[in-house]
Amino acid sequence: MIRRPVLLCALLCALLLTSACGSQPALRTDGKGPALWRIEKGETRGYLFGTVHALPDDVAWETPALRDAMAGADRLVVEARGLDDSEMLQTTFQSLGQSPGLPPIPQRLPAADRPALDALLDEGGLSEPALRPYESWAAALMLSTVIQSRIQVHGDRGVEATLMAHFKAAGKPIDGLETVQQQFTAFDRLPEDAQRRLLADTVHEANDARTRYAAMMQAWLGGDLDALARMGMDGMATDPALAGPLLHDRNAAWAARIDGMRGRPFIAVGAAHLTGPGNVAELLARRGWRVTRAQ
Predict the structure, then answer these.
(1) What is the predicted pLDDT for the residue at 107?
(2) Full-model pTM
(3) Would the pLDDT of 20 be above 50?
(4) Distances (CA, A) of 74 to 33, 167, 197, 242
(5) Rounded to the nearest 5 degrees, what angle is found at the Cα of 101, between the Cα atoms of 96 and 104?
(6) What is the arrangement of strands in the sheet containing 174-179, beginning at the earlier edge strand?
(7) What is the pLDDT of residue 243?
(8) For a tag on the chain, would you pick the N or C end, based on fewer CB atoms within 10 A?
């Protein structure tokens, strides 16, 4: 989905710095909006919504259809439980993301990408010795936060933060399809060569991140799943070592968990999990759910 770094910071990564204090976005009135599905099986009537985890200020993405879906839901279900607990997020990240005896970060990158690494470290106020204890996947996430700052996108303006604020204000419960530890563990279990590809792509593509993010945002805001899928074919979706554990395995686990739900859940997951072969909507349809595009 638009190469790995933008996917990493906008669609897949755990929300390292988010809190459930999202502001109310302006209402879209052009008849377009991010993809939303109505899902039905037996007595269960819910919604499935594709999100972007980090957004710029003042992005209008809510629509009347989306607000109606949220109002009719009895709970919110996001990717991971505890996304609004920043202390727990940081503790879990530090625990899983560090290992002793790792080589210097520059040695984990192609020589041609080392000047770009130095620029990112300097921009983020980081030093190589401080980053060295982090495994390659964790270093990639930390460098992605520098890129997020560069292109002025924020987790606390992201869709999940806003949705959690809505549902908390309405006194409705919030649950997750997995735990934060499971989400980080999916990265932590990647083979080292795959982790290094993730790290190298994060560094290599940093200068083009703004353009790539803008293209992704245009497709997401317009509900253009074909465009998002095409972007996926240029990145992680074609790397089995990454797509397997980060997309396909999690999609299957989430579909199984959703299949056991009852009531009126509003389920919000990263848009990457709702495009391409084996996406969550497709897996639910295979399990006998009626899945209808509502927006």
Answers:
(1) 96
(2) 0.90
(3) no
(4) 22, 9, 41, 34
(5) 95
(6) 174-179, 75-81, 265-270, 44-51, 36-41, 290-293
(7) 86
(8) C
